[in-house]
Amino acid sequence: MTAYRSAKPSTGPIILFDAECVLCSANARFVLKRDRKAVFRLASMQGEIGQSLCRRHGMDPGDPASLLVVEGDRMRRDSDAVLSIYERLGFPWGLVRVFRLVPGAIRDPVYRFVARHRYRVFGRRDTCWVAPTPYRDRIL
């Protein structure tokens, strides 16, 4: 496995994800492997930093209803968070930008439907996912 590591720790956006969710953990692995510029850092909503960031942005970390992307004081959630991640991964993933043409009022309910049913469809881990060693410096 090739790891793309930055010379200095990233100060870029933080992706807050549910590390007990199989789908969310798979997405975290996907992003880590394809984020060649090491732009993103990740934090589990179950961890201390993730819980603090969730609360600061009005989400209950005990009932994570959405993926969050936090960059400075700005927070994105739902479909906007997902699109903001994939747009920054470069080609071909950035092509998801076309979904910005679909209004959030349509995108977000679809996102929330999947989020509500993610444990039932994709499964839930008994323990939180732990990042592979080459990526641990990007996990908060």
The Rg value, from CA coordinates, equals 14 Å
- Helix content class: 25-40%
Tally the helices: 4
The fraction of residues assigned to DSSP E strands is 5-15%
Q: Structural class, please?
A: alpha+beta
Structural features:
disordered N terminus; 140 residues; alpha+beta; 4 strands; four-stranded mixed β-sheet; single chain
Description:
The protein contains four helices and four strands; from the N terminus they run βαβαββαα. It is an alpha+beta fold. The protein has one domain (about 15-125). It has a four-stranded mixed beta sheet, with helices on both faces. Strand 3 (about 70) and strand 4 form a beta hairpin. The longest helix is centred in the C-terminal third of the chain and has 19 residues, at about 105-120. The radius of gyration is 14 Å and the shape is globular. The model is unreliable at about 1-10 (pLDDT under 50).
Topology:
Layout (H helix, E strand, L loop, with lengths): L13 E4 L4 H13 L6 E4 L3 H9 L11 E4 L2 E4 H10 L16 H19 L18
Parallel strand pairs: 1-2
Antiparallel strand pairs: 1-3, 3-4
Structure summary:
The chain is α+β, with helices and mostly antiparallel strands.
